[in-house]
């Protein structure tokens, strides 16, 4: 076809080209370090499968680690194969892909297509009453067991692909306990008491979920595996699977990949040095497992880093190389050396934060406008560290955004509204009913609600149907008061149901819902910060319309499938909200003009011109609660390798932790490499002279600033800094060194004169 352009192959190096052109019939592992173009190769390979090998786009499954990564891949692919074809490719996280196929083919494995995906909070609500039964028994043995722990253990079992009965069996063969007449274990000596209780709860939890027509996140994967294993047609659904960030897949995800690939067409890319999700049951051993299960697997290694300067790469590699169990590999860059990464210490976390904020300003000025706020990221070991950073940036007037910070869909106001919509879509789903029935408060006490539950159970009606009948008198009331109390509830549900049946847009459903239950008024009366919560409701409406427009394309494609019950817009919207995860927020307009604050975990796969990692301290790196120190080291490596041109590590010798000031030491991951010759770190920031500017622009493929611009920016910066300095007399750690500043030192030189 003369219209096809294979231009996407032009920019690849020889190893990358080999990987893209590798036969689609032979399983392939691409193993390579950060920034070596793994994700780029994966995207090009998808294009190649479609354009060269002529695979139908809809028969390709591309698995990414986050929805955000899927969106980025979509953008890259759109440029090569166009919007229409890109929309046909099945692209998303393992969870999203499972949801997609399960909605279509749920019936073939005994599920209803309108299942509700439940999150941790809803799962907790289901587990709470089940756990209650064991309360006395556990108390007698002096065991405290929380819902969260039970769910974490169940989730671990599911990640290994163990069903409730598998798990029970495993626990029983391990245990020597004996059961009493109630079926409870009586032996007080076994260490497995908790496991046994969890095994029994697991079983009941599953039964309850099925009754509610609900699936938790792990179920999505487990039922996905089942779907692909039992369904003879599954061979036709997918002709090639590609998995990014393969080192972070768990056993169930691996099983799923194997089931989808039918032991043939599969491409995975990964980097064992970047495996950072062991705490969520990821198994780097899946790489070896794949070589066994897919006997003809070929490996291709990429050894050229296209992302970072040579000095950043060298320092990062020195950090990860301290892991003695690691397999040595080669990774080089053709980029120039560039400024050496900075390592600084401070007396407090405030000084650290204000240094970083000041440094961002200085760099922007000294790059003469080539770098913008959006080119900077501050990477944190955990979210709680963000407060100090955010306020320091704010003080300097630097706009910032927190990536994967507050989890939007876990907010009270969002969950309230989603509960109503879940109930409309799946009346079987009890947690949604329980939340909605008293939002806003309708005076339905715990007793009345549990009576409703019991009656619904006995009459095999959903709670929604039951209250409707009570309301219109077809079923006798429990107490006359109930009928009155549920009036507005029932009529709201009725309106929404009618709208949903007519395929109303989810954004319209939400607008109508907040009117029907007078939600703004409810927030005003019950929440002190109701205004920002009401803003979030507006944001939810925006999200709903975004999903709608995204779906227009894919619905058009799905219409060729005749066997499936059509997904309603409401169902697709609910699914999108339940599957959005940490770090997934869409880039909003103006985000490119903001400094990003993110966890190291959420930064996986991404890159920024300037990366700053504060709190590189013992207790933070490694995190004091970890049981895998090497994973913590790799996490720091992942953070450092996000940087393209400048890297800053810093620590505070005193930091407030949970209200108490604690003395802190430099992280052992860094202290072990800090005394090397030539040095891996500089203790003061680079001056950013012409040569540095040239290197930075070369790495970022940006054109160099006009020297006149640089002089202008620096002059403005110096003036502003001097003013600020004389006004406040304090600027981060400058106070400490105040006495040493010679009269006529420019602020920039002064900044450089400070020593750690
Ligand atoms: P990570 O392990 O961090 O996920 P990765 O191996 O997936 O990294 P990519 O994100 O695909 O690496 O690529 C890193 C950067 O290098 C991107 O900016 C990409 O566009 C660029 N890049 C990759 N290959 C080439 C190439 N052949 N020529 C020029 N730039 C390239
Ligand atoms: Mg990548």
From TrEMBL:
EC number: 5.6.2.4
GO BP term (any one): recombinational repair
Keyword Acetylation: no
Keyword ATP-binding assigned: yes
Cellular compartments per GO CC: nucleus
Keywords: ATP-binding, DNA-binding, Helicase, Hydrolase, Isomerase, Nucleotide-binding
UniProt GO molecular function: 3'-5' DNA helicase activity; ATP binding; DNA binding; hydrolase activity
Residues reported in the UniProt entry to bind ATP: 32-39
Top-level lineage group: Eukaryota
Reaction it catalyzes: Couples ATP hydrolysis with the unwinding of duplex DNA by translocating in the 3'-5' direction; ATP + H2O = ADP + phosphate + H(+)
Annotated ranges, domain UvrD-like helicase ATP-binding: 11-309
Domain UvrD-like helicase C-terminal: 310-605
Family membership: Belongs to the helicase family. UvrD subfamily.
Stated name of the protein: DNA 3'-5' helicase
Organism: Lentinula aciculospora
Full protein stretch here: 15 to 770 of 911
